[in-house]
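Why does residue order matter? Because the sequence determines the fold. Keep that principle in mind as you read this record.
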Amino acid sequence: MSDVDARAPRADAARNRETLLAAATRVFAASDTESSMRAIAREAGVGIATLYRHFPTRESLVDAVYEDQVQRLTVGARELLHQLKPAEAMRRWMDLFADWLATKHGMTDTLLVVIDAGEITLAHTRTELLGAISAILDAGTAAGDIRADASAEDIAASLLGIFTVAGKPRQHTQADRLLDLLMDGLRPVPPGA
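Structure:
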């Protein structure tokens, strides 16, 4: 076996890892309490040993899901900007942000342990998320479909406020309305209005 073979995961191992991350994300988002590792393995359609081979502890799984979701938000901002006008990209990114927050429902206790241990730094996450928002804002300002006086910090604070009051799955309709109102406030004011 070459050095490259020893370091690169096999294709089926990489698929299993992605399947496990996706399953854990779904299970965490659907639960208000900490879900069992066995439930995550069952959702992924793999045995518990496969789960533990990839993620030896609950903390390692939570860390991987958290990092995967932050990465999806930052990559998602760029992808949305390539596909949509900036204002529409911003609104769709807000939906991605809502999904990211929902993931934390079933992993809050473990996530707090991981953060407390210093394995996840909130400052890094904040920087990544503000960078994603700023990229969309800058494109929107340049295109003239997002007002120039909006800041990434303002949008992040608004999103946290919205999902604090309307973050439960049964409040999805209200959250959508509030996000639409936020987007209305981000549109430039027509001259003379």
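The mean pLDDT is 86.
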